[in-house]
Amino acid sequence: MNINKKIPKFKSEDEERKFWLKHDSTDYIDFAKGKKAIFSNLKSSAKTISIRMPESLLNSIKLLANKTDVPYQSLVKIYLSERVNKEFKA
User: Fold this and answer.
1) How do residues 13-42 score in pLDDT, each as one tens digit?
2) Distance from the Cα of residue 9 to its chain's centroid
3) Where do the CATH 1.10.1220 domains begin and end in the chain?
4) Which residues of 34-52 are buried (b: 16+ CB within 10 A; e: fewer)?
5) Which of 16, 43, 57, 60 lies 20 to 30 Å from 70, alpha-carbon distance?
6) How many percent of the chain have pLDDT more than 90?
7) Which 8-state DSSP code applies to residue 3?
8) What is the pTM of this model?
9) What is the CA 58 to chain-centroid distance, rounded?
10) H helix count then E strand count, the chain
11) How far is it, in rounded angstroms, from Cα 24 to Cα 38?
């Protein structure tokens, strides 16, 4: 593989994102030379919470999650995220 292009310097993350949307990273990076890295000290950005809801609502959520083959807690996060995004766009 002939990798001869230099990765440009970027003024912002947004500029870098736009660049990589239009360019193939294999023209700039030789992935065969990559090394395995372990990031054992990374911490989850998720926070555990407790929420009370009617049992019938929880059962309905679990049924929907089962139909879509998604864990029910993930489905709740998806629904909450979609609604919050909708509210911010309104």
Assistant:
1) 999 999 999 999 999 988 888 898 888 888
2) 25
3) 48-90
4) eeeeeeeeeeeeeeeeeee
5) 43
6) 71
7) -
8) 0.53
9) 25
10) 3, 0
11) 26
Q: Where are the beta strands (DSSP E) in the chain?
A: none
Percentages helix, strand, coil for the chain, rounded to the nearest 5?
A: 55, 0, 45
| Whether 30 contacts 1, CB under 8 Å | yes
Q: Which two tokens stand for residue 77?
A: 């996060």
Give the separation between CA 16 and CA 2, rounded to whole angstroms.
23
Read off the tokens for 73: 């807690």
Q: CATH 1.10.1220: does it fit domain 48-90?
A: yes
Q: How many C-beta atoms lie closer than 10 Å to residue 77's C-beta? A: 13
- Find out whether 20 and 9 touch, Cβ atoms under 8 Å: no
